[in-house]
Amino acid sequence: MAAPQVPSGVGGFVCGPLTGRNFPDIGDPLEVSFIQRGSSPEGAHVHDDSTGRTGNTATPSRRSVLAATAGITAALAVGGTAQAAGLDEHRLRALVSRMTLEEKVGQLFVMRVYGHSATAPDQADIDANLKEIGVRTAAELVEKYRVGGVIYFAWAHNTRDPHQIADLSNGIQKASLGLPRGLPVLISTDQEHGIVCRVGKPATLFPGAMAMGAGGSRTDARALGRISGAELRAMGIRQDYSPVADVNVNPANPVIGVRSFGADPRAVAGLVAAEVKGYQGSRVAATAKHFPGHGDTAVDSHYGFPVITHTREQWEALDAVPFRAAIAAGIDSIMTAHIQFPALDDSGDPATLSRPILTGILRGELGYDGVVVTDSLGMEGVRTKYGDDRVPVLALKAGVDQLLNPPDLDVAWHAVLDAVRTGELTEERLDESVLRVLRLKAKLGLFEQPYVTQAGVERTVGTARHLAAADAIAERTTTLLVNEGSLLPLAPEEHRKLLVVGADPASPSGTTGPPTGVLAGALTELGFTATALSTGTAPSQATIARAVAAAADADAVVVATYNVSATSSQKTLVQRLLALGKPVVAVAVRNPYDVAQLPGVPAYLAAYSWTDVELRAAARVVAGRVHPGGRLPVPVQRADDPTQVLYPIGYGLSY
């Protein structure tokens, strides 16, 4: 493709789910309550190994919690506790010096594990763990490999509800702290909001990054991070793989797209920095990803090996800007990308395995000394060139600190162990990464407060104030791109009967149903009589005919579009509906680029995601309950001539 251009003329800052196994300030105070040193851990549910009960029934006494944390005190051999800024460097180095090689290696791994409980998961999850990891439970994973981190996924049944998540987190911490020289575990997840969320309702769910880019408010971005961080912390999740710092300049990008704040590097940088400050103000480690920049690719690194063709100058002007901002904001961790970037390293290695990129540029030139975590090591982008036994070793040699989710933990763990024993990796290099990981745990207060309480979950997760904040932010992101003849807002008096048709992609966390159903329900609540008819992302001729027949009895039609291409049958659906002569309102439920493929639609909204919070905000805009306030954070090119911009960055209508 043509060399990307840095968007110009933008002054100042204007904010199908990824599935599978790879992968104004509201002002309310943080509503989180954690166990204080020496206090009774009321409501902190931890599995009691002596009873065989599940994690949501056993509540430890003060004595049991203090016993569990005693290993930390002994390991540190100091009389004090972690301070707000973490344990001092001397004490952490002393701890590292006493750790065994196996303990050090374990600290560098962040691993998935199936199950809702650390000790008593469902049998199907036990079977999956035995097959993939060789252990039965999360507790056994921690005991066998001494892993420093665990990542939660919905598909691994880790995130059923907030109280269960807190129990699981406490169970994992208890398992680790009960070991000789037990250390707290850094529990993480991908809670980007929008189309990538691992923790669903009743937690508070916000618009995704591109929607936040459309809102353009750094204050809103900081509020998102602060509220989301508080809720994650209440559930024991202390590292969030968010925000996405990639600048999305390629409309065909299959893996980033609406996960990016936009195409203007300065705007993206401001929102990234704001979100980082929000999360870390809640003492949750934010993670800027995917370094050195995954915003201009037509290949998904989950399934292929993308090559970024930017020059070094383009990288400096475009991709590097948000990462510099994240570092300036004090980012705790940065995630690598499984991409080839010849202008930065011409070896052909992915950035995850590139010493010139991670040590030379990220640490040397950008001055970053925090934790570097890989993207999932099960992704094809990092496995194309090297075997699973070489990837973790090469990543550490490149400058990585945390090895995320290798496809075969036993192979990866022993590969690192053997590399140190044979001298390929020095123990000094290993100690550097272990020290960074422990520094982060100390900074987050995990040595002092490893457990969370059910009372804290109740006070913090999904509160009315948090939910209201998410709704208000969503209303500021909905973008009106077309409104011929002032069709919008629709009035129930004139357009009482609505038919809602369109795409119903797989539901990410944060959805209570398919997009057509959510939109129809929201519009009905607003005074319309709305009926939903799912037509899918590739409607057949028979499906289109059913939709046209159903529309005959409607006063207006609302169409949810999803990644419409030049050959998409969604175009045929819309054209057939337009031919009826009825008002048609389209809502792009993922990429805003859809509008270029459907030039005849008289009213078009961009919602940027099909989660409830964004769809319900779009419904309120359709009904005129709120005014559309979003502005495009990416340019939309003409479908017939991509060199021509149809709607520029900053474009958006209102009423």
TrEMBL record:
Source organism phylogeny: Bacteria, Bacillati, Actinomycetota, Actinomycetes, Kitasatosporales
Domain Glycoside hydrolase family 3 N-terminal, chain residue ranges per copy: 100-440
Protein's GO biological process: carbohydrate metabolic process; peptidoglycan turnover
Classification via Gene3D superfamilies: Glycoside hydrolase family 3 C-terminal domain, Glycoside hydrolase, family 3, N-terminal domain
Record-annotated Glycoside hydrolase family 3 C-terminal domain positions: 479-655
Stretches the record annotates as Disordered: 38-60
Residue ranges of coiled coil: none
A Pfam family: Glyco_hydro_3_C
Entry's EC annotation: 3.2.1.52
Keyword field: Glycosidase, Hydrolase
GO molecular function, one term: beta-N-acetylhexosaminidase activity
Top-level EC class: hydrolase
Superkingdom: Bacteria
Organism: Streptomyces actuosus
Catalytic activity line of the entry: Hydrolysis of terminal non-reducing N-acetyl-D-hexosamine residues in N-acetyl-beta-D-hexosaminides
Family statement drawn from the similarity comment of this UniProt entry: Belongs to the glycosyl hydrolase 3 family.
Name the record gives this protein: beta-N-acetylhexosaminidase
